Amino acid sequence: MFNGVINPKKSLFPKGVLLSLAMATIMTPAMAQDSSGWDSSKFINLLSNRLVETAVSAARSVAQVSYDNVTYDRHTDRFYLSNLYVVPFGLDLPDGCEVSVGGLGVTGKRADYAATDMFELVLDDVFVSTLCLPFEMRAGLSMAGLSDLVIPSVQLQFSHHYPSAATDVAISTAVAGAAAVTLTAKMDYVSVINDMDFPLYAELNAAQITIENLGAWDSLSMQLPKEFKTPGIAGQSIAGLLTPELTEILGQQQGLDAAAQIRTAVDEFLQNPRKITLKTNIDPRVPLRLDPTLGDDFRSVWTRLNPTLRAQSGERVTPEFAANISAVNRGQYGEIEPSELYDIGLALQLGQRLPRNQGLARAI
After folding, report:
1. How would you write the chain as a 3-class SS string?
2. pLDDT in tens, 187-213
């Protein structure tokens, strides 16, 4: 159980400890396949426990930290830290505020022939009581029919191709009874550089965010007037409200284009309220370099991003998706891209497009 909020500006773990843990997770899959006859999983369990104990000892200087156990699953190559409890010292939390995390999983793999490193961080069974949230956010959750945030899983997936420095990032989560959110980014080049202000060089090739309705719209729509939930009318109503602000921020033509996309997407969504997707359309020949000055000329950045907004209805099972399901049933997870594997796990967990199977979803 994790209670409280960790200040992101203060690292709880020394960099050396984090580096050691990361190296260990990357090295262990190969070690687990050792054929010398000795039980490598016991050694990995021992090593992972010692590394976590070292990290926790350092963290206890700034917070109250406890957990149940640390295990290593040789089938999924994942370290798993269960029932994590962290309360930073001196943090004044409101009465009734509770944040809990059932488990923290860490996976590190290397595709040797592809020279690609893959890292995954998973938070399972996350619970956030509304008393931890600002009043405005509580009101929004109440309108969506939620009393507390119950998040079955939060996944962060990261892959880095060392020869080219190309990097993919995917963040996925779902709030039970409300919505699922998936954010992906593809970068042609990522590297740490010697710059104290922004020590990262990154060239963005594509980004996308998808929000899937899992019940929030059903609760919210009951509280809205007809002009904001009737197809053919709502799109124009919402776009009309946003047009003045959009034209001021983006300029006349880009603002009108954005309003037109919003009008179309809203009406499409209302006809079949499943998904809304916002994606970039960056010229692949000229990736967008990410740096803190992008906001200084937002209009030109918007032109480079060239984003599109669209609604997606329920997806049928494609032949590629069916082939991935067959690979999952054979236990051949390595044949599937991490983002596609997450989609399968989420479909199994939520019972959408596939029969609900919590056990297999957790294994994925």
Report:
1. CCCCCCCCCCCCCCHHHHHHHHHHHHHHHHHHCCCCCCCHHHHHHHHHHHHHHHHHHHHCCCEEEECCEEEEECCCCEEEEEEEEEEECCCCCCCCCCEEEEEEEEEEEEEHHHCEEEEEEEEEEEEEEHHHCCHHHHHHHHHCCCCEEEEEEEEEEEEEECCCCEEEEEEEEEECCCEEEEEEEEEEEEEECCCCCCCEEEEEEEEEEEEEECCHHHHHHCCCCHHHCCCCCHHHHHHHHHHHHHHHHHCHHHHHHHHHHHHHHHHHHHHCCCEEEEECCCCCCCCEEECHHHHHHHHHHHHHHCCEEEEECCCCCCHHHHHHHHHHHCCCHHHCCHHHHHHHHHHHHHCCCCCCCHHHHHHC
2. 999 999 888 888 999 999 999 999 989
